[in-house]
Amino acid sequence: MSVCVGMCDQVEDMLKRSFAEFHAQRSHPEALQKLAEGKARLDALRAKPWPHSPHATWALGCWMSALHETAVSMSNGAEIVYA
């Protein structure tokens, strides 16, 4: 009896995946349209000049320094502990 229950569960899961895939494919054109719109917005943002400010430059330097320290500590086999 447990074999039948297991097989029924597998068939039920297969049917759920089939219906989910059908709905995913059905809504695919809208997803592609949204993706194209998002890419166009991203391209428009990338075309704008990057704003220069002393604070932004300082923050970027701090971030790069922290990233470098993390990479060095990981390459030394140290464990990183987040507080």
Shape: elongated
User: Biggest β-sheet: count, sense, barrel?
Assistant: none
Structural class: mainly alpha
Let me know the number of strands: 0
What helical percentage do the residues reach?
Answer: over 70%
Low-confidence stretches: none
The radius of gyration is 25 Å
Alpha-carbon distance between the termini? Answer: 52 Å
Round the mean pLDDT to the nearest integer and report it. Answer: 75
Structural domain tally: 2
Describe this structure in words.
This protein is an all-alpha fold. It folds into 2 domains: 1-48; 51-83. It is built from 3 helices and no strands. The chain has helices spanning 2-26, 28-47, 54-75. The radius of gyration is 25 Å and the shape is elongated.
Structural key phrases:
mainly alpha; 83 residues; 2 domains
Present the secondary structure layout:
Elements: H1 2-26, H2 28-47, H3 54-75
Tell me briefly what this model is:
The protein is 81% helix and 0% strand. It is an all-alpha fold. The mean pLDDT is 75.
